[in-house]
Write a structure and sequence with these properties.
With 280 residues, the protein is of the alpha/beta class. It has helices at 38-48, 75-84, 86-109, 126-136, 153-159, 162-172, 186-194, 207-220, 237-241; strands at 23-29, 33-34, 51-54, 61-62, 66-73, 114-117, 140-141, 150-151, 180-183, 199-203, 225-229, 247-250, 264-270.
Length: 280
C-alpha cells in the first residue's frame, strides 16, 4: 500500500493523526524578561488554529520565573510551533529584554536621552515583530530603510564634502526634516553645524573621545542634537549615557551578549478536562 495514500505529500507529518483531545504548550521564563510579541502570537493563533492565553500585557517586565502564556490546540500544531516559530519568539523576547535593560540603565544616568535601534531584519514579517519588541522596550525604532535623516560619512566624503552634501539634501527634501551628519572628528562636526546640519551622529568611538567631542560642541553650540551610534551592551552603555548625549543608538542589536537568564521554556502537556484521545 502506498505510504502517502489519502495524504497530501507536502502536508506536515504532525498533522496526519487526528486527536479529539487538545494539548497545551506552557511557555515560561527562567529569569527576568520583558513581555512582548502580541503581534507574533496573534499570527501564530491564526496560522496554527491555536488558542492563545496571555498572563501579561505587552511591555510588562516579569522579574520572577513564572508562566507567561499558554497555547491550546492540536498536538501536531503545537509541535510545529515549537519547531518552526519557538526560536523566533524567544529571540523577540530576548531583544525586548536586552533593550529594556539598556533603556533603564540610560534613564538612571540621563533621563532625557533616547535609545534608538537603526536597523531591522529586511524580512517580512520578522521586521514587524522586532519593531513591536523595540517599542515595548520604550525604545525608538528608526531603521535606515526609511528616511532617517542620517548622512553617513562615506556618503558625504564621496559626494564632495560636508558643505556640498548638506546643500544637496536641503534642496532635495522637505525643509522640516532634520539632517544629521555622521562623523568621528570634532572638526567635521563643527563644519557640519556651521553648514546647517541639525545634529551630529558620532560613530564607533571610545567613550573618552565621545566625551571630549560632546563637551567641545556643547561649549560652542548651545542647542544642537548629538547622538552616539555604536555597539551597545549592558557592560558599556553607562559609559556613554553619562556624557550628555541626546540619544544612544545602534545598528547591531547583539542578542548573543544578552543575559542567559532570559532563557525560555516550552512545555507540552495534555490540556485539562479532556477525554482520552481517539486515533484515526
Amino acid at each position: 500500500m502506498p505510504l502517502f495514500t489519502g495524504k497530501k505529500i507536502f502536508q506536515p507529518m504532525e498533522e496526519w493523526p487526528v486527536y479529539e483531545r487538545d494539548w497545551m504548550a506552557r511557555i515560561s521564563n527562567k529569569g527576568p524578561v520583558l513581555f512582548t510579541g502580541e503581534g507574533l502570537l496573534s499570527q501564530i493563533s491564526k496560522d496554527y488554529s491555536l488558542e492563545v492565553n496571555l498572563s501579561f500585557r505587552r511591555g510588562d517586565f516579569v522579574a520572577n520565573e513564572t508562566g507567561l502564556l499558554t497555547l491550546r490546540g492540536k498536538l501536531g500544531a503545537l509541535i510545529r510551533v515549537r519547531d518552526e516559530i519557538w526560536y523566533v519568539y524567544s529571540q523577540t523576547l530576548l531583544l525586548a529584554t536586552m533593550l529594556y535593560r539598556l533603556k533603564e540603565t540610560v534613564k538612571r544616568v540621563n533621563p532625557m536621552a533616547s535609545v534608538i535601534v537603526r536597523s531591522l531584519p529586511p524580512v517580512k514579517p520578522l521586521d514587524d515583530w522586532y519593531f513591536e519588541a523595540i517599542e515595548d522596550a520604550s525604545c525608538i525604532c528608526w531603521p535606515s530603510s526609511v528616511t532617517d535623516g542620517v548622512i553617513h560619512q562615506e556618503i558625504w566624503k564621496e559626494f564632495g564634502g560636508i558643505e556640498r552634501t548638506l546643500e544637496f539634501y536641503r534642496r532635495s527634501w522637505n525643509p522640516s526634516f532634520k539632517l544629521l551628519l555622521e562623523c568621528d572628528r570634532l572638526s567635521d562636526a563643527i563644519t557640519a553645524i556651521k553648514s546647517g546640519a541639525d545634529g551630529i551622529v558620532l560613530k564607533d568611538l571610545k567613550s573618552e573621545m565621545v566625551g571630549e567631542i560632546v563637551k567641545a560642541l556643547r561649549e560652542r553650540f548651545k542647542k544642537i542634537y548629538i547622538e552616539y551610534c555604536g555597539d551597545m551592551t549592558l557592560f558599556n552603555v553607562d559609559q556613554y549615557a553619562s556624557l550628555g548625549l541626546d540619544a544612544i543608538s545602534t545598528y547591531r542589536a547583539d542578542l548573543t551578549k544578552a543575559t542567559a537568564s532570559s532563557e525560555m521554556v516550552y512545555t507540552l502537556i495534555p490540556a485539562p478536562d479532556t477525554d482520552e484521545p481517539k486515533h484515526s
